């Protein structure tokens, strides 16, 4: 059975869509694709090259301490270039640029809501 899947657009939960949009557009250089409201957005999408991420507001009652946050693995041509540009955003040494035992070169950053973005290439 062929499904002809073309793309995936993950939806990340955020506490403040405007704050999240600022991070993705100003810090990471994503472009705004859409948002449902300019004044008080509850849902928006950003894109950088072939990666599109949707951001969805969630009420504070839905945020529980210790809840695991999603992590997205984003395949890219050269994580070293991105790492040099975004090094100041890398939260800890474990998220730093490295070659992994599973055969990738990667690093990670976290958005203001703790959602992880891991940029990698296969070695």
Structure overview:
The chain has 2 helices and 8 strands, in the order E-H-E-E-E-E-H-E-E-E. Strand 3 and strand 4 form a beta hairpin. It has 123 residues and is an alpha/beta fold. The protein starts with 10 loop residues before the first strand and ends with a strand. The relative contact order is 0.21. 15% of the residues lie in helices and 35% in strands. The chain has a single domain, classed as Roll (2,3-Dihydroxybiphenyl 1,2-Dioxygenase, domain 1), CATH 3.10.180.10. The chain has a 4-stranded mixed β-sheet with strand order 1-4-3-2, covered by helices on one side.
Write a compact overview of the structure shown.
With 123 residues, the protein is of the alpha/beta class.
Features:
15% helix, alpha/beta, 8 strands, 2,3-Dihydroxybiphenyl 1,2-Dioxygenase, domain 1, 35% strand, four-stranded mixed β-sheet
């Amino acid at each position: 059975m062929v499904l002809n899947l073309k793309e995936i657009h993950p939806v990340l939960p955020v506490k403040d869509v405007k704050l999240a949009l600022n991070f993705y557009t100003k810090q990471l250089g994503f472009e705004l694709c859409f948002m449902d409201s300019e004044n008080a957005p509850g849902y928006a999408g950003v894109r950088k090259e072939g990666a599109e991420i949707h951001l969805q507001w969630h009420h504070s009652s839905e945020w529980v301490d210790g809840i695991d946050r999603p992590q997205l693995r984003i395949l890219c041509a050269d994580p070293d270039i991105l790492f040099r540009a975004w090094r100041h955003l890398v939260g800890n040494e474990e998220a730093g640029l490295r070659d992994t035992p599973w055969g990738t070169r990667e690093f990670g950053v976290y958005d203001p809501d703790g959602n992880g973005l891991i940029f990698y290439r296969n070695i």
